[in-house]
Amino acid sequence: MDGFWQSLPPFFKKFGLETIFIFVALIVLLFSFFGFLNQQNNQSKASDFSFEKPQGKQPLSSQNICFVDISGAINKPDVYELPCNKRLIDVIKRAGGISEEADKPFIARNFNFAQYIYDQEKIHVPFTWEINETIFLENKKVLDYTFPQVVEKQSENTVDKISIGISSSEELEVLPGIGKAAAQKIIDNRPYNSINDLIIKKVISKTVFEKIKSYIVE
């Protein structure tokens, strides 16, 4: 044993620099090895807490599905499920259209068929008797169709009329005396310079024109 320790000084004297390099390399290697083990351990712990995104129901905003309750003078009143990018006219079509008991002129003036639907919306289509019994007062009150009640009208100018120049067939059909065929005839005879062109071009009869002239614009 004494011989071993006595041989070290000459050894380090001859190979001192090489020995230091080897020693430093071993230290670096050990630190790298323990660092790798620590990294693997951390990744293993993190994987214990990881989880996949649950499948099934997604938030309503990502589903883009709306439930709309439509009642009143409609052929099939019910709660309907539709994409949220649909409009009021789409709900009415889904519900079988407006019934014959509806006050169509009132609806034509006060309902915006182009408006987008929203989730949990309530739509009430008024019956003629509801208008006749002044539940909804014409020229004094305007129906808030999102709920079966009446609200104060802001201005007479805010009541929209149906344009014979740009309205769709479904919008024209809510006019009194205008069915599907008459609506299509109005569309086929466009353009119009005034509502009187309906008579000049013999699109509809004078009797029908008298019924709808206060509800239309060119």
UniProtKB/TrEMBL annotation:
Keyword RNA-binding listed = no
Please indicate if the UniProt record lists Transmembrane helix as a keyword: yes
Q: Which residues form the Soluble ligand binding domain?
A: 68-103
Q: Which InterPro entries match?
A: Soluble_ligand-bd
Which residue ranges run through the membrane?
20-37
Q: Which UniProt keywords apply?
A: Membrane, Transmembrane, Transmembrane helix
Lineage, top-rank taxon, reads Bacteria
- The protein's name is Soluble ligand binding domain-containing protein
Origin species, per record, is: Candidatus Roizmanbacteria bacterium CG_4_10_14_0_8_um_filter_33_9
